[in-house]
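Recall the central idea of this unit: under ordinary conditions, the amino acid sequence of a chain determines the structure it adopts. In this exercise we apply that idea directly, starting from the sequence alone.
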Amino acid sequence: MSVHAIGRAFVTFSIRAVTGLHIGGRGGGLEIGGMDKPVIRDPLTNQPFIPGSSLKGKMRSLSEKQRALPSNWRIGESKIHVCEEPSDYAACPVCRVFGTPGEKAFSTPTRLLVRDVQLKEESASKLDSLSLDRPYTEVKAEVAIDRVTSAATPRHLERVPAGAVFGPGEMVYTVYTSDDGSCDPHQDVNLLRVVFEAMQLLEHDSLGGSGSRGSGKVAFEEIQITVWSSDNYFATEPQSVGSFPTLTELIAEGEQVLDCVREKLNLRETGSAGGHS
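Accordingly, the structure predicted from this sequence is:
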């Protein structure tokens, strides 16, 4: 099987923490003053950030649940859905977009790449100027109650305060073709819709820990979509598809966005609707 990329769609964005955001780092252990649940931080800046693995993993998990797919493959302490048969994989949008383990010989390349998202400089400066519990973060005190003994156990959750903005984030979606038909570029462009849906599911759910207790509500903002076509991949500028202040506006114009991506990749079908600019 010969597979090659015909182009890539770049989705850049900012993520605003609508409520306090906790994405866990290494625990504080039993030392005096140790944090029960610290956030993950960039070792060079000491600033909190959003790992691409956390963002992609939550988007995948929500996409699996939306389609009632079974969690049948263990990765570390988590379980994900992985198709077991080639026929299932061919029809599975989640496995094709988010990827499958290398052990699956029938799988094709992962379409979606998600990069780490750093704290925006403006937010970092604002948080640094505040009298917070820790650098750039607040500490939320919680109490766990034993349902049998009623004993109270205090715990401390470190969070990035509401209003902080991370960005620019970047997702890279690759469109493939193959000589045996296992990769269909038209289908790949259609599956870009799965990425937009996963972003919307995340806005309706939560990112990071303690989502059921108020943390982790986020919003995608300042979304831009550009395309790099293999026909002219090393051009000085990518081809613009559109800019969207909010995810709601992107979702509303989703079909026009997909059609514009097809056009930029020379996949436009005769009689299809015009693209977004």
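Residues 236 and 271 are 30 Å apart (CA to CA).
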